[in-house]
Each structure stands twice: as structure tokens, then as C-alpha cells.
Write a structure and sequence with these properties.
heterodimer, A: 115 residues, mainly beta, seven-stranded mixed sheet, 48% strand, globular, B: mainly beta, six-stranded mixed sheet, five-stranded antiparallel sheet
């Protein structure tokens, strides 16, 4: 199993550009989520999905969209990039919601710089 | 007050020593607790869950004190490979991960 994969690893955007960060998992996990990690701050939840066709907002959703058309894929779209979105983005998945034990498996991250 | 607080460190500890980190959380209704490890420029990975009775995994011991709302991580006989940032994670929800709160991490460097 490849686990959780993310592309690209690095990206530089200009203010106002849009792009999609890709995330895929091959573990048949129900739950997927996107986080951003900034210096001096913990990981913050952007959006999450409890299954195909179902998404919801996390703590910091503004400026981002998600969709979940399949169990495997959970892309994150930046609608109009801003310098405040410069960050490291992690996608994560976990098996399901029926247990209070829910290890999260993280992808390798995407380092995004917005100029 | 931050929901999950950790001493950011850095902790510089000689190889073979014992080191302990604490993490405090503000929501007394929090349900489950974890320690994740994050190597430099890498993704976080689960180190261990923290159970009410305390639990041990090799050189690592995790404790939970609900009355004082803190969790701890003890590393014995530290190795160079233990150098990393340790993230305290608290789940306020009984099920699901949308109520996970991550601490900012404690940076540990083991010195030869």
C-alpha cells in the first residue's frame, strides 16, 4: 500500500491564482481531512469528509473548497491564492468513525508559497 | 488560553538520559489523547495513544491526569533517533476526528 499520497510536494503561486492540491489514499478509509501547519501553531483543520459525497468545514475553511467523489480521492482547491495561505498542507485519512480510537495517517505534505 | 498547550522547547538532552514532556488541555470533556511524532519537514506519525490507566511502549510511557487536565510523555534511555518534535493531540469528540486539537509541539534534540 502507498498509504496517503499528496501532489505536488512543492508549489509557488502568485496572488490570485487558483490551484488544486491532490490527495489519495489506498487504505479504503472512510475519513479524510486537510490540515495546514504554520510556524508556532498546531495543525489546523481546513475541511474533512466522513465518506464519499460528504464534506464539512473545519476550523479554517475560508478560501478553500473540497469535494469527495470517491473514497480514495480528496482534492483541496484554493480559489484565489493569498499570501496568508502560504503554509504546509497535510492530507490525512483514518479508518472510520465507529471507534474512539482513530489513528490518522498523514500524507507527506505540500509546501505552498504564495507571492 | 490555548486549548492544548505544550512547552515548545527545545529540549537538548544527552543520549541515554530520561526526558519528560507535559501537555495541558483546557476542555475537561475531552475524550481521547495521543502523542504524535513529527520529524523535520516530514508528516506527523502516531507514537502512542494515552489511556487513563497509563500505558507503556518500550522506552516510552504516556500518562493521563484528567483531574489536572494534562498528559505526559516519558522517554527513557533516549536515542539519537528520538530527536523530533512531539505533538500532543486531544480529541473532544467521542467518534470522528473533526474535534482534534493539536499542540504546537515540543522539540527534542538528543545530543551524542
Amino acid at each position: 500500500n502507498a498509504g496517503v499520497t499528496q501532489t505536488p510536494k512543492f508549489q509557488v503561486l502568485k496572488t490570485g491564482q487558483s490551484m488544486t492540491l491532490q490527495c489519495a489514499q489506498d487504505m479504503n478509509h472512510e475519513y479524510m481531512s486537510w490540515y495546514r501547519q504554520d510556524p508556532g501553531m498546531g495543525l489546523r483543520l481546513i475541511h474533512y469528509s466522513v465518506g464519499a459525497g460528504i464534506t464539512d468545514q473545519g476550523e479554517v475553511p475560508n478560501g478553500y473548497n473540497v469535494s469527495r467523489s470517491t473514497t480514495e480521492d480528496f482534492p483541496l482547491r484554493l480559489l484565489s491564492a493569498a499570501p496568508s495561505q502560504t503554509s504546509v498542507y497535510f492530507c490525512a485519512s483514518s479508518p472510520g468513525l465507529r471507534s474512539s480510537y482513530n489513528e490518522q495517517f498523514f500524507g507527506p505534505g505540500t509546501r505552498l508559497t504564495v507571492l | 488560553r490555548k486549548e492544548v498547550e505544550q512547552d515548545p522547547g527545545p529540549f537538548n538532552v544527552p543520549e541515554g538520559a530520561t526526558v519528560a514532556f507535559n501537555c495541558t488541555y483546557s476542555n475537561s470533556a475531552s475524550q481521547s489523547f495521543f502523542w504524535y511524532r513529527q520529524d523535520c519537514r516530514k508528516e506527523p506519525k502516531l507514537l502512542m495513544s494515552v489511556y487513563s490507566s497509563g500505558n507503556e511502549d518500550g522506552r516510552f510511557t504516556a500518562q493521563l491526569n484528567r483531574a489536572s487536565q494534562y498528559i505526559s510523555l516519558l522517554i527513557r534511555d533516549s536515542k539519537l533517533s528520538d530527536s523530533a518534535t512531539y505533538l500532543c493531540v486531544v480529541n473532544e469528540a467521542r467518534f470522528g476526528n473533526e474535534k482534534l486539537t493539536f499542540g504546537t509541539g515540543t522539540r527534542l534534540t538528543i545530543i551524542p
